[in-house]
Amino acid sequence: MQNPHSDIKALTFDVFGTVVDWYSSIVAEGKKFGNTHSIDIDWTQFALKWRAGYGPAMDKVRRGELPWQNIDALHRRILDALLETFEITGLSETEKDYLNRVWHRLKPWPDAVGGLERLRKRYIVATLSNGNIALLTNMAKFTGLPWDCILSAELTGHYKPDPQVYQTAADLLGLSPNEVMMVAAHPGDLRAAQAVGYQTALVPRPLEYGPDNIRSVTPHASDLVANDFNKLADLLRIT
Amino acid sequence: MQNPHSDIKALTFDVFGTVVDWYSSIVAEGKKFGNTHSIDIDWTQFALKWRAGYGPAMDKVRRGELPWQNIDALHRRILDALLETFEITGLSETEKDYLNRVWHRLKPWPDAVGGLERLRKRYIVATLSNGNIALLTNMAKFTGLPWDCILSAELTGHYKPDPQVYQTAADLLGLSPNEVMMVAAHPGDLRAAQAVGYQTALVPRPLEYGPDNIRSVTPHASDLVANDFNKLADLLRIT
Which residues does chain B have within 8 Å of residue A173's beta carbon, measured at their own beta carbons? Predict the structure, then answer.
């Protein structure tokens, strides 16, 4: 039987939750920021609410209720509302901007850098995130994520899971969609990629929302399933 | 006096001629291809004519005489005409495509990889080339060029030296133009970047057109001038 993965030339990765651990990164930075700024709040709730605002904010852009804007701008809209909710006052513009850019400083899951190093021996490895190019570039630089190419929904004027994002990414890589494998922790992302013709790999990240909110996901029959990027490299038989 | 370069956050690089030596790469691959396909032509002339077709082809796109198409497609148009000029017949589509993709396999100048490794210790280093994303990504992967980010005219629907290319690149990096330094062997590229607000560094590559066609260039007063990427790192005081 022919290896169904033999056509793959590139792997494209969802980033928030799949490659980096936004929850613990934001909680850790929040606590530190709180200590230096005398802000005493529950940073786990702050992190969860910030992330919870992300989908609805993109939906507003998708429905045309907000003009196109990148994720830095959407994160800032959500942050400004959260500062009111948590009654955090007195921050300067510089401090708010610093806090907003915590999304540029998210830490990779422990397997991510080493797993990507293995996967990129055979494949082009690229981001395919709703995060903007600057965010993804800064994140890669400061955490050592070894991308061959930074691709983003920002390049298309659409957000995942809109099909334009996946189609444009394949076009920019000079590949047909079935030569690309989408790697994500979120089935919705994979289903949308698959509808455009991508192959798919599910890498569940049960701790994405923190240890008190374990998430389980159900793979589709056609997905590769691997518990981390090293297991994915094993499945693809990369030493 | 304040260091005029202290604001720089990112260096963007012209690629063909500045980072990679298209002339000797194409001549070497051409000779090899000629040997295995019994094609006896002057590959130095073939390389020079292929490159000479590049500006006029982009001009046709710029004037609307050709619909938007990426550099792979423009290189192929020029190649098809050259095959007629040089009376090369009988190549399969696969062979023509392989030959066209020599532009994905161009070799870096000897200082390029090491110089970029030094420069990226402090700055984001990105391509800003008329080459398409797939070409630049493949080239980086197979030659070890350590880009933080692959940016291309392809993302803008314009070709350098149109101002949109430089402005969009700064926007995607989340920077103002004066936080970006364009690095190129070609004064026209630097002047166009400077008109948008970039800082500029000229790295002359006198051998770009081969040892029989030494080119000299005249720097603008405001340019940094360095003979290679290591000298540029020295000027920027990066160890």
Answer: 133-134, 137
| Record: contact A155-B154, CB cut-off 8 A | no
Query: What does the domain layout of chain B look like in residue ranges?
Result: 10-21+108-235, 23-104
Q: What pTM, to 2 d.p., does this model score?
A: 0.96
> Which amino acid belongs to residue A127?
T
Query: What superfamily does domain A22-104 belong to in CATH?
Result: Putative phosphatase; domain 2 (1.10.150.240)
Question: Tell me, what's the pLDDT at A3?
Answer: 64
**CB-based contact A72 B174, cutoff 8 Å:** yes
Determine, for residues B132 and A175 on separate chains, whether the beta-carbon distance falls below 8 Å.
no
- pLDDT tens series, chain B, 239 aa: 456 678 999 999 999 999 999 999 999 999 999 999 999 999 999 999 999 999 999 999 999 999 999 999 999 999 999 999 999 999 999 999 999 999 999 999 999 999 999 999 999 999 999 999 999 999 999 899 999 999 999 999 999 999 999 999 999 999 999 999 999 999 999 999 999 999 999 999 999 999 999 988 888 887 899 999 999 999 999 98
Residue of B95, B104, B103, B109 lying closest to B50 (CA atoms) = B103
Cross-chain CB nearest to A124 (options B137, B148, B149)? B137
E strand spans, B9-161:
10-13, 124-129, 149-152
Interface test with A, best of B76, B105, B133 (most A CBs within 10 A): B133
Architecture of domain B23-104: Orthogonal Bundle (1.10)
Question: Distance from A137 to chain B by nearest Cα, in Å?
Answer: 6
For A155, the closest of B124, B137, B155 (CB atoms) is B155
Tokens of B180: 């970006």
Q: B232 or A1: which carries more pLDDT confidence?
A: B232
Residue B16's DSSP bridge partners are: B20
CA distance B159 to B14: 12
